[in-house]
């Protein structure tokens, strides 16, 4: 009768165990690579919304007192009941990645006549960035205005202190002889919340009034923004 197979010694069993362990390690490494490549590992970074909340109507917390103190009042709704343009106007959108809100208000000098076509438009937007940090690109977004120049106008961008984590004001410099207005943007970032308020003013040639200077408009926007941002946390 032929002899049977030799018994397996301890050395052979050890090699089999090591090969099995090595295969498991390789498989784990490959699987980890797949997870990283496909986004299987969740990003643990949570959005820093700094206490701000989504509002369906951004006009509710928008503070207009500084403009009223400066001699402006909201224009009445114009047109018939079926075609009237509401003032103020607002819109909003809530999304898993980004919440956006807008409020547009049309002002006029207090006590102005029907023949006075002077107006101030206040455009306000606020966004809650819930997936992407807007910080790294925020300043560059507004610095880009400095590259927008023509023969009659240019933009000046300056940092503003006392609002959020960072804030900038964009002032339009217009050398045209027919310039009868002012255009100023105030932008604020607080955590992953971004806010922009724009002052756009036009003074008609028939008006007895005059446009605010960019510096005066900036101060009004700053006062409004400070109060508005506080209300957006309530």
Describe what this molecule looks like in 3D.
This protein is of the alpha+beta class and 234 residues long. The chain has a domain at 65-79 and 86-231: Protein Transport Mog1p, Chain A. Helix content is 26%, strand content 29%. It contains 4 helices and 8 strands, in the order H-H-E-E-E-E-H-E-E-E-E-H. The chain has helices spanning 10-38, 65-69, 135-143, 214-231, and strands at residues 72-74, 89-93, 98-109, 119-129, 153-159, 166-174, 181-190, 193-202. Strands 1, 2, 3, 4, 5, 6, 7 and 8 form an 8-stranded antiparallel beta sheet that branches. A hairpin with a 2-residue loop joins strand 7 (181-190) and strand 8. It is globular and about 55 Å long. The protein starts with 9 loop residues before the first helix and ends with a helix. 24% of the residues are buried. Residues 5-12, 15-19, 34-42 and 79-83 have low confidence and may be disordered.
| Count of DSSP-assigned helices | 4
CATH fold-level name of the domain at 65-79 and 86-231: Protein Transport Mog1p, Chain A
Q: How would you classify the helix and strand content by structural class? A: alpha+beta
Helix content: 25-40%
Counting DSSP E segments of at least 2 residues, the number of strands comes to: 8
Query: Given this structure, which CATH class of the domain at 65-79 and 86-231 is correct?
Result: Alpha Beta
Low-confidence stretches: 5-12, 15-19, 34-42, 79-83
Our estimate of the beta-strand percent is 25-35%
Mean pLDDT across every amino acid position? 83
The coarse silhouette is: globular
The main β sheet shows up as: 8 strands, antiparallel
Order of helices and strands: HHEEEEHEEEEH
Please state the CA-atom Rg, rounded to the nearest Å: 30 Å
CATH architecture of the domain at 65-79 and 86-231: 3-Layer(aba) Sandwich
What gap, in angstroms, lies between the N and C termini?
A: 93 Å
């Amino acid at each position: 009768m032929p002899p049977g197979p030799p018994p397996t010694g301890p050395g052979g069993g050890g090699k089999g165990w090591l090969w099995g362990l090595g295969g498991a390690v390789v498989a784990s490494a490959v699987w980890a690579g797949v997870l990283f490549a496909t986004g299987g590992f969740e990003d643990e970074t949570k959005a820093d919304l700094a206490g701000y909340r989504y509002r369906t109507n951004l006009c509710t917390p928008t503070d207009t007192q500084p403009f009223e103190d400066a001699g402006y009042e909201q224009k009445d709704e114009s047109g018939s009941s079926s075609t009237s343009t509401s003032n103020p106007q607002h819109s909003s959108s809530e999304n898993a990645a980004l919440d956006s809100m807008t409020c547009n208000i049309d002002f006029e000098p207090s006590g102005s006549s029907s023949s006075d076509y002077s107006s101030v438009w206040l455009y306000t937007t606020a966004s809650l960035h819930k997936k992407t940090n807007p910080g790294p690109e925020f300043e560059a977004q507004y610095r880009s205005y400095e590259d927008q120049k023509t023969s009659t106008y240019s933009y000046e961008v300056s940092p503003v202190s006392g609002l959020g984590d960072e804030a900038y004001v964009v002032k339009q410099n217009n050398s045209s002889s027919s310039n009868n207005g002012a255009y100023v943007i105030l932008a604020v970032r607080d955590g992953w919340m971004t806010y922009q308020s724009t002052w756009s003013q036009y003074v008609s040639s028939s008006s007895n009034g005059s446009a605010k200077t960019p510096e005066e408009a900036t101060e009004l926007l700053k006062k409004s923004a400070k109060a508005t941002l506080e209300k957006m946390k309530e």
